[in-house]
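Internal tracking record. Fields below are filled automatically when a chain is submitted to the structure queue. Please do not edit lines marked as system-generated. If the sequence contains nonstandard residues, flag them in the REMARKS field before resubmitting.
Queue: standard
Priority: normal
Entity type: single polypeptide chain
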Amino acid sequence: MSARGTQGVSGLVAWLALASPVDAQSIDDAPILQVLRVRDEERALNAEGLWRRAGERWELVLRSPFRAFCAAAAPSGEVYLGGGTPAESGLLAHFDAAGRLVAQAELAQDTIYAVALDDRTRRLVVACADGRVLLLDPETLALRRELARHGAAARRLAFAPQGTLLASAGLDGQVLLLDLESAAPPRAIGDHLAGVEALAFSLDGTRLASGARDGRIRIHALDGRSLRLSPPAGSAITALAWTDAHTLRCGTLRGALLELREGEEPFRVLRATAPSPTRTLTAQ
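SYSTEM-GENERATED OUTPUT FOLLOWS
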């Protein structure tokens, strides 16, 4: 079985995380955790680092100095890898556009699950297994301040398109919204009955979708109002992406690709199942 992206409708690609060992000799030997764009080229992340497609093959172009769980990239080509060892260390590494290690920091005593970088403001944020959401210096990785703390592992981060609002989600079921232009404490804008594994702001930044392990999706207004609660999807929601103002694509732990449209109650099933989870939805 090979690592791959499956083309969806409206140019969305659903990336499958193929279950396999962490000790990787090729991209197929560890699951794809995330797909991101680095200088307009797609890179696939697994525990070993970042991979690039070269014809029919994949080649490792940036090896992580630790077990990688997440990544973010700047328009300049700089890359941040987060991860570590569960129950032991939470690590973040900063690489320049040439792939040279600029800085590395141990930020926690447990894994870093998510890293987010806003292109315009250069705000760098990580989500930690101990529940903390941390704002860091993008060059040195020094801690600037703790932004929020979840009651369980912080799992996902998302910047609004304007770059001043940040959403975080955790296994406590909470979705927190932070105004990074003020010193105001985070606002809980909604909670799920299960851990939250996916976040996505609408394209205009006026709504936030969150998906949980119980298969339900909530759509929130930024003032905290709940706009919609979906029926269960039949499996944990693992990826979300808006394709337009009225359409939300959803990936699940069972590999399904679903569509939730405004004014329509049931999910549209674009792919019923796959051999492995859909971890990332990327526009193409």
